[in-house]
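Sequence design from tokenized structure. All designs in this work follow the same two-part layout: the structure record, then the generated sequence. An example of the structure record is given first.
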């Protein structure tokens, strides 16, 4: 497959967005960053939240007019969804569809609801995706610093959808860095797979397993915590700065040899076969159907597994050590302050 085409500000005029009346539905980590960045880029918009949402006061303090999703639908012709994946379809069907113009535009920050058919836009609607590749706080911080977080864009339907996606990415700050065109399917499936295999599931399970291996062999929990979890940020930061090759150039020769000679024994052919099965479950919808079923049942398995994770010994050890480190850093900062005359 050829390399993706990188789009920038010259490909993404803001004008198509300025011709619309926009609203962001939801005001969590991503929703807040999108709303603030778009507003600061000159795009007026509403924020839609339930009447009882505690986040309403945050959005108002940020200077937004806050309305319900139904009110936003009646007053807007472009809605950007910043809601949980499984809530989007219900919110659209119950609160938005009765009031929103059928030829309006619907934007998404993740493709889950569209790809797995939880939300079906009218045939006349524009439907697009803008997915920044970074957490909400980073999206905001890099924008304020004059940069941006790269974003993926995709079109589900509509002749104007691509122009609107590019314009939204421009307002978000992503066009300052890189915009890459994809599809709802590719964005959704690669995102879910990476969360399960690497970013969340793979990393947390590997950390737990390595910690347990050291402790079972008689090593101190504190030593195991530092080696298996605390130092992970250093490695990830080096990867983010220079790729895996760049990380390897900046670690010791012993670490290099351990990396290239032992890493493949940990992530062996059996693990690769399991990764392929994980990907198939994402592709064929098994994971999505299971998640929808779990949510409908009140999330009992999720709650049980999260509770068990919080009781893992690495959590209590880490909490104690992080507290000591934070106290030490606070004392150091206090010592640096000039004495008052």
């Amino acid at each position: 497959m050829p390399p993706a085409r990188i789009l920038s500000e010259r490909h993404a005029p803001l004008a198509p967005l300025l011709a619309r009346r926009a609203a962001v539905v939801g005001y969590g980590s991503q929703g807040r960053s999108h709303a603030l960045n778009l507003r600061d880029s000159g795009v007026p918009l509403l924020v839609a939240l339930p009447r009882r949402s505690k986040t309403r006061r945050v959005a108002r303090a940020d200077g937004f007019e806050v309305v319900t999703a139904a009110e936003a639908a009646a007053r807007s012709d472009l809605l950007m969804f910043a809601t949980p994946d499984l809530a989007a379809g219900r919110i659209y069907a119950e609160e938005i569809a009765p009031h929103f113009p059928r030829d309006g535009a619907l934007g998404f920050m993740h493709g889950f609801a569209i790809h797995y058919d939880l939300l079906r836009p009218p045939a006349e609607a524009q439907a697009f995706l803008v997915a920044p590749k970074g957490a909400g706080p980073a999206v905001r911080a890099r924008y304020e610093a004059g940069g941006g977080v790269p974003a993926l864009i995709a079109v589900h339907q509509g002749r104007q959808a691509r122009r609107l996606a590019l314009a939204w990415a421009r307002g978000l700050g992503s066009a300052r860095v890189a915009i890459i065109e994809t599809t709802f399917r590719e964005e959704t499936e690669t995102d879910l797979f990476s969360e399960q295999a690497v970013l969340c599931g793979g990393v947390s399970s590997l950390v737990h397993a390595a910690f347990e291996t050291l402790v079972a062999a008689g090593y101190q929990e504190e030593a195991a915590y530092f080696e298996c979890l605390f130092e992970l940020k250093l490695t990830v930061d080096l990867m983010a700065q220079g790729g895996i090759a760049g990380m390897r150039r900046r670690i010791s020769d012993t670490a290099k040899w351990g990396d290239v000679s032992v890493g493949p024994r940990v992530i062996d052919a059996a693990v690769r076969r399991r990764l392929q099965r994980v990907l198939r479950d994402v592709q064929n919808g098994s994971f999505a159907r299971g998640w929808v079923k779990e949510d409908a049942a009140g999330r009992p398995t999720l709650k049980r597994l999260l509770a068990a994770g919080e009781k893992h010994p690495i959590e209590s050890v880490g909490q104690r050590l992080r507290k000591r480190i934070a106290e030490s850093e606070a004392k150091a900062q206090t010592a640096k302050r000039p004495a008052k005359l």
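Strands lie at 6-7, 22-25, 45-48, 66-67, 78-81, 105-108, 126-132, 151-157, 179-181. We note this feature because it recurs in several other targets discussed in the main text.
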